[in-house]
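Could you help me review a protein record that somebody else here produced? What it holds is a sequence and that sequence's fold in token form. I have pasted the whole thing underneath without changing anything:
=====
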Amino acid sequence: MKDLLHPISLVVAALGFLCLLRDVPTRRRDPASTALAAVFLLSGLSFLFSITPMWNYLDRVLGTVNISVPLAQGCVVALLACQQVVLTYWASPPEVARRRSRRWLGAGFTVIAGLLVLFALLTPSASHPIDFTLYYAHDDWYAAYLTLYVTAYTIGELFLARACWQLARRSTRGSVRVGLRIVALGATVTLGYSAVRIGNVIAGAFNTSLAKWESFAWTCGDVGAMLTLIGWLVPTIRDQAQTVQYRIEQYRRYNGLRPLWLAFYSEAPEIELPIDRVDPAQRRHFRRISIRLYRRAVEIRDGRFVIRQYLDASVRETSEARHRVRGLHGQELSAAVTADQILAGIAARAAGTRPATDQLTEFADSERQTAGPPDDIDALLDVARHLPRQPARGPHPERVSA
């Protein structure tokens, strides 16, 4: 059963760690994020060390029989402490969280040290990756080892379930509430593993065995661990889904501005901001979609400034009359008229003909109120939707850096 469930749990832990790893560099000053990433890493290692092929490999390489036992269970104790660090930082002020986190981590390292000492007192004669607990159930030193481990494990899971349930009731974020309740459920399920291991200690004292309960113990342990990992991932997946959705929207807006940008660039390629002059160390930053979208909006505004002196009042009047007949009004009308003005202004600049001074006018959407860059881009998108996807004149192909 162990070799069937552990690889599945290992995959869940690895996927969770990779999912969190991308956010760790941007949250270097957030101990909770670092501790949560450590939870997934330690969980994955605990499952990896317990799989039979890895168990046998470590025995050969490290030269110590059954060394996977303290390695895997040490990872479990460490991740229990890290989980408490996450909850402490989520629920307490930073000053209080730092103090409590040191206590949890100190307790975890103390238990791990005790496990290593007790394991060193065992006299293992052969590798037992499948039935290690049953084989050593009658050994007094192993009884002490198992008692220490199960006690720490049970206390950790009980504290985890209680803290998650309480914090879930206070959280204002739906994804956090759901995730913490799943973690609490997983921690509760793992108590079935604790019960069997406590039974192993008691059974050893009476020279009996709980061999029939081994599958139940591993099932509770792995299913509970998977539920716990999934619960921790719920808020992260929600946040990353919103980030992906936001980036997709930025790409959509960036591409939506393309016909408007091309219309100006075809006549005035000088509007393109020279990225080649940017420090090479900063070029990657300038390739981010948020920066590219902002650059495109700035370049379009520069293009509007270039052809502003070619705006003929008669073009605006004719365009307004035509679009009113079509039923346009308000911002949609001003956007459609502005699009016509842009095309006419570009053509006039190309021909070198300027309207008389008394015939100069402003863009129809010049009086539109915008509260910031997002609103400004919305106004430009409204204009872009009234332009043809392929402008009539385009001798300068769009460059990749635009």
Remarks:
- Residues 170 and 373 are 35 Å apart (CA to CA).
- Confidence is low (pLDDT under 50) at residues 391-402.
- The chain has 16 helices and no strands.
- The longest helix spans residues 214-256.
